[in-house]
Amino acid sequence: MGFNGSTSPQQRCHCAVDDLLAPLRSKMKVLKKIKRRIGLTPRNSGNNGGTNNLPPVLFHQVHGDNIRISRDGAVARRAESFCKGVTFTNRPIKISEKVYVKFLDVSNNWSGVIRFGFTCNDPSNLRHALPKYACPDLTNKAGYWAKALAERFCERDTVLFYYVTHAGDVHFGINGEEKGIFFSGVETRGQLWAMIDVYGNSTAIELLDARHQLNNSRRSAQVGGGDVSPDVDRLIIPTMAALSVQPSPRIEDVTEQVPPPPRFQQPGSHFSPLPFHRTRGRNVRLSNDRCIASRIDTEFCQGYVFTARPVQLGERIV
């Protein structure tokens, strides 16, 4: 019995078609990603954690001595000084439920702005026991997690949102734009109340109804009551179609990029390549020799890399 290793014309044709369509499929994935980023494709409703049916988030009746609550619990204003402004939500916050905070009044008399996070301690048990500050007075105790917001984000009418994941990572965003992980380490096995310290130059804040924010984001994706998806398709698809579609090059045809030599090298010094480790952030792309690391242009995080081997004592990395 013999073995025929030849490939039929049909098989060769099928492989050629796959090679031809591979770049097109890649471009369609890019199109889907663009539409997903601007909110034109449905997302997994599981991220909301069923929070649309929850009552609005308001401020708890237990708060710092300098806090005055108004508008039926939606607004917290610090009446004097720069401290004693710790506040909590009136109910526990679900995993992935977003807490929306609007800056109503911002001062320039102090330094620093709000500190925000979560606590697993029921605020009802903290009456007459609140310290001046959330950080570090409360965060040094078990069951309190918070961090200070950068002052550049605190402007009048700006809307901050934040939420915690099952992994205990607290994400935040400004005016509907995700900024990334704010801090980690929150214990999520029990109930969690949002904790906000109306500190420093942040003098008045308002808790917004998450349902209204969701409706606003949906309306922003509509132009004149119609879906803008056709316009996106009209603008993006022809551009992508105009790109040349060529078969992917064979592996043996790809030449290895050689990194340029260092611009300056001291006499007697010897430089040797130190490649990056294969373990890296999800937004990092490595060259074939793993000596060049680049982060995806459209991303700002998950850009960490490691060396492929341990660094010796006294060894310099250029």
Topology of this structure?
Blueprint: H1 9-37, E1 67-70, E2 75-78, E3 86-88, E4 99-106, E5 115-119, H2 134-138, E6 144-148, E7 159-164, E8 170-174, E9 177-183, E10 193-197, E11 202-208, H3 210-220, E12 222-223, E13 226-227, H4 229-241, E14 284-286, E15 293-295
Antiparallel strand pairs: 1-2, 2-11, 3-10, 4-7, 4-11, 5-6, 5-10, 7-8, 8-9, 12-13, 14-15
Protein name: NHR domain-containing protein
Keywords: Metal-binding, Repeat, Zinc, Zinc-finger
Organism: Graphocephala atropunctata
Assign the CATH topology of the domain at 48-208. Answer: Jelly Rolls
> Which CATH architecture of the domain at 48-208?
Sandwich
Radius of gyration: 27 Å
Number of strands: 15
Strand content: 15-25%
CATH superfamily of the domain at 48-208: SPRY domain
Nearest-integer average pLDDT:
80
Helix proportion range: 10-25%
Strand order of the largest sheet: 1-2-11-4-7-8-9
Largest sheet: 7 strands, antiparallel
CATH class of the domain at 48-208: Mainly Beta
The coarse overall form would be: globular
Coarse structural class: alpha+beta
Distance between the termini: 61 Å
Explain what the structure shows:
It holds the Pfam family Neuralized. This is NHR domain-containing protein. Residues 56-210, 273-318 form the NHR domain. One of its GO terms (molecular function) is ubiquitin protein ligase activity. The protein is an alpha+beta fold. Among the domains are: 48-208, Sandwich (Jelly Rolls); 269-318, no CATH class. It is built from four helices and 15 strands. The protein has helices at residues 9-37, 134-138, 210-220, 229-241; strands at residues 67-70, 75-78, 86-88, 99-106, 115-119, 144-148, 159-164, 170-174, 177-183, 193-197, 202-208, 222-223, 226-227, 284-286, 293-295. Strand 8 and strand 9 form a beta hairpin. The longest helix has 29 residues, at 9-37. The protein starts with 8 loop residues before the first helix and ends in a 23-residue tail after the last strand.
